[in-house]
Amino acid sequence: AWCGQVTIREQAENHGLAAAIIAGVTELVRVFERVIVLEDDLLVAPHFLDYMNEGLRRYAAQPKVMQIAGYLAPIEIDNDGPAKSFFLPLTTSWGWATWKRAWDHFEPTAAGYEEFVRNPAQQRAFNLDDTVDYSTMLRESREGRNCSWAVRWYFSVFLCNGLTLYPEQSLVQNIGFDGSGVHAIHSFGFETQPCAAKISVYPSCIAQDEDKWEELKAYFSRAKKRRMERKLLQTKLPFGQIVAAGLQSGFAVVRSSVSCVNNFVKLCCDWVVRPCKRWQRMKYEELAKKTYELAQFGEKLSTIHQFSCEATIASGARIFSEAVVRNLHGDPERIRVGDNTVIRGELVVFAHAGKICIGQDCYVGDGTRIWSSDSITIGNRSLISHAVNIHDTNSHPLDAESRHKHYLQIVEFGHPKKDIEVAASPVRIGDDAWIGFNATILKGVKIGRGAIVAAGSVVVKDVPDNAIVAGNPAKVIRHYEDQKNVA
Question: Is 453 helix (H, G, I), strand (E, B) or coil?
Fold first, then answer.
């Protein structure tokens, strides 16, 4: 009674998950221009349809908005004030809606995949900074090894730079994780209860919510770790099978790299090829812990391999999952990372020029951005804290008209590959330097050996060896020799 006329379409045979969803949505948007999709294992909140219909009405003429989502993973939310909604660049299959104009972009064959697999930076973005392996799911879907239509829909929206409207708290509960479902057995922490509050605040600005996006990626990262730990601690398989299962996801990417495989096999032999009685005496928890350490090693190798076409990375370096390495120029020799160096920030070389060379035993913190269109050289044992900005270029022309043209070119066609009239000058950071958090180092600056740049400083001129600078603009406040007698 609540929805008027009801039509039940019963097929003579099972068409399968993907074919049924795709055909049903395609037919309904052709007739009605929009559709709300629910599967049989979803419970929804009382105001679910109000939210869906309001979203469909509000954003019908906004081409960048391509889906209305009912489900949201249980990330931390602000419970103060009215229930809100926001945009994220990720689709969902658990209670959703769309328009014909958006569904027309859906490519069941995942058109554009060949170019996508040649772009590591694009794959990383598609994988939510490598917190969810959607790339493998997409490949297996194309190969017929899974029947996911949803990953192909997400891929289509991703290529369009589309956005999805999400409620601040999930309006959908998936009850298909009780062991009765065909395609899922356990949820590993994605359980939610439908929110009773009515969504009353809708964003007027069509842009992704950066804070919510970071919260969601952090949640998926924690969920990924919990899944691995749970599998290791719950399995009762023999040791060899435990290692294989624990390392499958982390090591799959590097199986084609001969040198990585050889190093990994050597490590396994050093640990595994021991008298069997040792493993009989070993407590299971210790065994699981050691296996998890090996899984982390496999993940380290896979991350290095993932960025191998973007940069030249020493085998002992560590590129964390939150790191970003973007080589717009295309020559991996233009980004070099030394042995035992840890990268958690962003390294970018522009398309027309640029070079980044980081020495041995260095650290680049989370959220730090090192962008080059000339050259940036960082010596050995230098520590770059989090949220630091190091730029050897003005990035844009000073003239307003030229700057606007440059911006439009980047937005529409990407960074230009030919020389551009933007001021740039090398940045050099000596050995044993320490750059504090939120510091900014601008073009043409030389940081001396052993120098310290205080947090929040803006460095616009050279810093002597063993000097401590602070302020905006940064000035020398003392040298190391001034502190010889300080306890």
Answer: strand
Helix (H, G, I), strand (E, B) or coil at 323: coil
Contacts of 161 (CB under 8 A, 6+ apart): 64, 89
Answer for the pair 342, 322: CB distance below 8 angstroms, yes or no. Answer: no
* Single pTM value for the model: 0.52
Q: Residue 334 and residue 370: Cα distance in Å, rounded?
A: 13
Q: What is d(CA 29, CA 456) in angstroms, rounded to the nearest whole number?
A: 53
Contact 311, 327 (CB under 8 A): yes
Tell me if residue 396 is catalytic.
yes
Residue 476 CB contacts under 8 Å (≥ 6 apart), including other chains: 463, 464, 467, 468, 469
Q: Which helix (H) or strand (E) holds 214?
A: helix 210-234
**356 pLDDT higher than 70:** yes
- Single out the catalytic residue among 396, 404, 406, 415: 396
Q: Provide mean pLDDT across the span 156-185.
A: 84
Distance CA 181, CA 184 (A): 6
Mean pLDDT score, 98-120: 93
Q: How confident is the model at residue 295 (pLDDT cuts 50, 70, 90)?
A: low
CB 443: neighbour CB atoms within 10 A?
A: 21
How does pLDDT run across 226-248, given as a tens digit for each residue?
A: 666 555 555 444 444 444 544 44
